[in-house]
Amino acid sequence: MDTYTVHLAMAALVGASLVAVSAYYMHRKTLSQLLEFAKTVEREREDISEGESLQHSMKRRGQLSRRKGNGYYRRGSASLPDVTVISGVIDGEEKRNGPIHVDGIPAGLPRLHTLHEGKSGGRGTPVKRSASLIRPTTPKSPSASAFESIEGSDDEDDIIDNSKLDDTYLHTNGNAGPNLPDRSNANGEAIQIAASSMIRTHSISGDLHGVQPDPIAADILRKEPEHENFARLKISPSEVPSPDEVEVYVVLQECLEMRKRYVFKEAVAPWEKEVISDPSTPKPNPNPFFYASEGKSDKFNLHLMLNVDKEFLAQKSAPHRDFYNVRKVDTHVHHSACMNQKHLLRFIKSKLRKEPDEVVIFRDGTYLTLKEVFESLDLTGYDLNVDLLDVHADKSTFHRFDKFNLKYNPCGQSRLREIFLKQDNLIQGRFLGEVTKQVFSDLAASKYQMAEYRISIYGRKQSEWDQMASWIVNNELYSENVVWLIQIPRLYNVYKEMGIVTSFQNILDNIFIPLFEVTVDPDSHPQLHVFLKQIVGLDLVDDESKPERRPTKHMPTPDQWTNVFNPAFSYYAYYCYANLYTLNKLRESKGMTTIKFRPHSGEAGDIDHLATTFLTAHNIAHGINLRKSPVLQYLYYLAQIGLAMSPLSNNSLFLDYHRNPFPMFFLRGLNVSLSTDDPLQIHLTKEPLVEEYSVAASVWKLSSCDLCEIARNSVYQSGFSHALKSHWIGTEYYKRGPAGNNIHRTNVPHIRLEFRDRIWREEMQLVYLGKAIIPEEVDK
Ligand SMILES: [Zn+2]
C-alpha cells in the first residue's frame, strides 16, 4: 500500500515536470516570434503618435507600453506570454482563444493602456469587446468603442439610454467636456491617460450617432479597412519535433483528456438545446424571482389526462361505496389533544355542574374540589367559552413549539390540564378516561373513522407503564376503532436537570425493562400485558427544530451519557430502535404482537433525522422536510415508507398550508396519509379527520379517487390487525398493485393502482439496473 502511494506520488511528480518542460519549450518557441510582432506594433504606434496633435498623451502611452513590455520580455520565467500587452484591443473572441491566434487589431489603432493598469483593465470584458465589433457601421471611432467597452456593455445596443452612456464616458474620461459636472473616478490614472482627444466630442453630446468625428478620429476611421490586412501571428512550428518533444506532447494530450474526463460538462450543449432565430437582444426577464414549480410528476398528470374519466366511471360503478364510507385511519393523533375544543369545553362544564364537590387536586398544601379550583381561578361554569379555554393554536404558535405546548393548558392554567388531561393525577385520570370514552363513542358512531392515539411514556420511572396500563384497564378504554402508540418525549436534559435521572441509560431502562419483563413473564404485569396487545407502535416526540449536537462516531454510550445535554435525534432514534428490535424478536418468538417504530421525523430540524428514520423506522409522522432532500424523498418513495402527514398542524407550527409538500408527494406516488395531529388545538368540527381531508381536497383540488387512495394508504400504514385490514380494504390487501385492491371496499379504481404500481416498478428496475426482484406482497 505504501509503495503504491509512493509510486503514485512519483508519477505525479514526473507528469508535472513534463508539463513544465513542455510549457517552457512552447514558450521559447513563441518568444522570438512574439518579440518580432511586438516590435512591429511598436513601430506602427510611433508612426501614429508622431502624426497626432496630442503628442503628449500618446507618448506617455508609448512609454507605458514600453515599460510594461520591457518588464515582460525580461521575465524569462513567465510561463505563458502575456499577449494582452500586445493585443490591447483584440476583440473578445480572439482573446479567449489565447495567444496563439491573434488577429483583428487595427494596425493604426492607439493602444488602450487602461487595460494594463489595474482596475480599468479588469473592467474590459470580452463580451463588450465583441459587441463593439458587431456594429462596424457606427460613425464613432473604434477607439471610442474600445473605451466604451470598458463599461456599460449592457447599454451597448440601447443607444436611447443616453444617461447611462454619459456615465460611461465620465468614468473613462474624466475631463471630457467643459459643460459636464466634475465627477470622481476611482481610477485616477485611467482618467489622465484617457484625456486624449479621441472621444471628447462624444462625451459632450452624449449621442454617439450624432457626432462628427474630429480629425484624429477620422484619421483612425480611414485606417479601419486595415482590419483586414492586419499582421497575423504565425507560430505553428515548422520543424519536425524531436522525440523528446513528442513525448511532451503526448503527456499534454493526456492532461487534456484527463480534464475532459474530470471537468463538468452539460450532457446537451446550450446550442443544441436552444435554437436562436431572433437576432435582437435577448429580452430581460421581467420577473427573475418568480417561482413556478418544475415539471413535477408529469407521469401522474398524464395518467389523469388519459384516465380520469375511466377512474370516475369505475368509482360510480362500485355500488354503495363512496368517500364517506371508505375506512380512513387517523394515523397520527396525540391522545391528550384528541378531542376538539368544543368537546372539552362541554365536558368541563358538565363536570362542574355534576361533580362540583369532587376532590380533584392537591395544590399548595391543600386538597381542592373542582368548585374550589374554579373559584380560585375566579371562574364560573357560565363564564366558560371556547375563547376563554384558549387551547386553539393561532398565529402566536407558528415556529413556537413552546407556545404550542402551552396551549395544552385550558384557560392557560396548568391545574386544569392536570385535572382534565392527565392520567396520573389525584383522580387517577378519571376525567381524561371519561372524555376519551366519549371520543371513542363518537368514532364508533362514525363507523368508518379509526384512530391511532399516541400516549406518553416519559421514562422517568419504571412504574409509568403499570400506571398507564391500569388507567386503560380500569377505565375500560377499548374500541374496535382505536389502537395505541407509545410516544417518548425526548426530554433527557430536563430530567437530568431535575435530578430524576443520572444517565441516558436510566431512561432506556425505565422504558424498556418493564416491556422485556412483561414479555418474558406476562404475570409480572398482567394489566400491561393486555394493554400491550393494543399497542402497535413506538413514537419519539418533541420539537425537532431545537438545535442539537450533531451525532458523531465517538459518542458516549447511554450509560456514559451523564452530561447535561440532550442527545441528538439520531441518538434517541437509534437506541429506541435497537431496543425495540430486540424486544420484537422476543415477542415474535413467543407469538405476541410486535411494536413498530413509528417516530415523528422531518417535521422540522435537520435532514439527518429523515436519514436516520429511513434506516430504522417502519413509517414516520410528518416528513415534510423530505421536500428539502430529493434523494431521501426518492428513497422514501422507493421503499414506500408511510408518511402520516398533517398539513393543518404544520400550518399552525412549521409550514404554511400552501407550501406543504403533501400534494407533490402524493402526485409522485409516495405513501402518504392525512392525519390530524392535535384536534384540540387545530380543528373546529366534530370530525377532525374529515375536516383534514376536506381542507386538503378543497385547497389542492383532490378528486374523490385521490381521497379514497389516501384513505386506503392510511389503513395500510396503520397498525390495525390483519383481520381488520382484510375486512376494511379487501382480503388480499397485502398484494402489490391492483391485485391487492378491492374497489368495493376502497372505492379506488384498479386503473389508479395499476398506474402507481407500474411506475414504481419502473423506478425500481431503473435503480437496480433491470435486476430488481420485487415480491408479490407488500413489506410486512
Ligand atoms: Zn404529532
From TrEMBL:
Per the UniProt record, which residue ranges are transmembrane?
6-26
PROSITE patterns, alphabetized: A_DEAMINASE (PS00485)
* Residue ranges that the Swiss-Prot or TrEMBL entry lists as coiled coil: none
List the keywords (alphabetical): Hydrolase, Membrane, Metal-binding, Transmembrane, Transmembrane helix, Zinc
- What are the boundaries of the region Disordered? 45-73, 113-161
SUPFAM superfamilies per the record? Metallo-dependent hydrolases
Listed name of the protein: AMP deaminase
Organism lineage string? Eukaryota, Viridiplantae, Streptophyta, Embryophyta, Tracheophyta
